[in-house]
Write a structure and sequence with these properties.
Layout (H helix, E strand, L loop, with lengths): L4 E12 L2 E12 L3 E5 L6 H8 L7 E6 L2 E2 L5 H4 L2 E4 L11 H11 L4 H10 L15 H13 L5 E5 L7 H16 L3 E6 L2 H7 L2 E6 L2 E6 L1 H7 L5 E6 L6 E4 L2 H12 L3 E7 L3 H9 L7
The structure holds adenosine-5'-triphosphate (ATP) and magnesium ion.
The site of magnesium ion has 3 residues, from helix 1.
């Protein structure tokens, strides 16, 4: 495995009976990195997470996690990862505290750590509440708390904020950035490109089981920024002017600047969403 790599996929393919769900996927997750797997419904995101976490065998290729082949994972690896997926596995009749305390015992984690994690996810006030009576966003936060309780080296999140209100989503984003600060690597899947742009150091755009583009959100957007445009607002006007980057327009903008006529000026780069459209001809979020 490459130095600093915590996770490495090499030429992974997965066939379900008749359908080829993943085609020759290769990628690397490094220490302290948030990697986003971006793609529409059915692209193969969950399949990828299941292969990496040893829940599914690839048809061909190799997935190495913390130096071990993912089809050979044992307890020592599971102790070092955290997984948040759709099937949350919360014990509905137990309180929030009891849910966490159960896992804390398995992982030999202190009560002080439970308190700390509850604070981080903003759930300290709900300790005594039965988990079955939590709202969707609160449940999601409990699942996240459980996944990071033992300070895993890699956290896997399948659609961490889907269906959550914006303020809960922002709280979860902040927590993920804090965890990265502490050195944790995060592998997340999403079809929310704003989330990816904001959080991810590296994104892979997945479409019909193939990685169609890969790099940092900035790198990818700049690469597709072939026709740079400037958006301008002149003094006394409420209508934005859009100009392409040409020598003539540069002269024009410079003249306006010298006469102090410009109220606002910014260059406009494509978003991941528009790149995805260009590469695949399909919108990132399928309707
Ligand atoms: N157990 C299975 N048996 C057969 N086909 C499957 C199975 N699981 C997934 N598939 C198919 O493989 C493809 C990829 O599915 P996957 O769940 O990985 O997509 P996804 O990117 O996670 O989508 P979503 O955003 O909807 O969660 C889909 O076309 C799906 O129908
Ligand atoms: Mg999925």
């Amino acid at each position: 495995m490459e130095q600093n790599a915590l996770l490495q996929l090499s030429h992974i393919s997965k066939r379900y009976k008749t359908q080829l769900a993943l085609k020759d996927i290769s990628m690397t997750l490094r220490k302290g990195e948030i990697l986003g797997f971006l793609g529409p419904s059915g692209a193969g995101k969950t399949t990828t997470i299941k292969i990496i976490t040893g829940q599914l065998r690839p048809t061909s290729g190799e997935a190495k996690i913390l130096g071990t082949d993912s089809s050979n994972m044992d307890a020592s690896i599971y102790e070092k990862i955290g997984v948040v997926s759709d099937n949350s596995g919360i014990y509905e009749k137990m309180t929030v505290w009891q849910n966490l305390s159960c896992f804390a015992k398995i992982w030999r984690v202190s009560n002080a750590r439970i308190e700390e994690v509850l604070r981080q996810v903003g759930m300290s006030d709900y300790k005594k509440q039965p988990a079955g009576k939590l709202s969707k966003g609160q449940k999601q936060r409990l699942v996240l708390a459980r996944a990071v309780l033992h300070k895993p080296r890699i956290l896997f999140l399948d659609e961490p904020t889907s269906g959550l209100d914006p303020s809960t989503a922002i709280a979860i984003h902040k927590m993920l950035l804090d965890l990265r600060q502490e050195g944790m690597a995060v592998f997340l899947t999403t079809h929310n490109m704003e989330e990816a742009e904001k959080l991810c150091d590296h994104v892979s755009l997945l479409y019909q089981g193939t990685i169609v583009e890969d790099g940092s959100p900035q790198e990818i957007c700049l690469k597709y920024n072939k026709r740079k445009r400037y958006h301008l607002l002149l003094n006394g006007s409420s209508e934005e002017i859009v100009l392409e980057q040409t020598p003539e327009n540069a002269v024009k903008i410079s003249e306006w600047m010298q006469k102090d006529m410009i109220q606002r000026l910014h260059s406009c780069e494509p978003t991941l969403e528009s790149v995805f459209l260009q590469v695949t001809g399909a919108p990132l979020v399928s309707l």
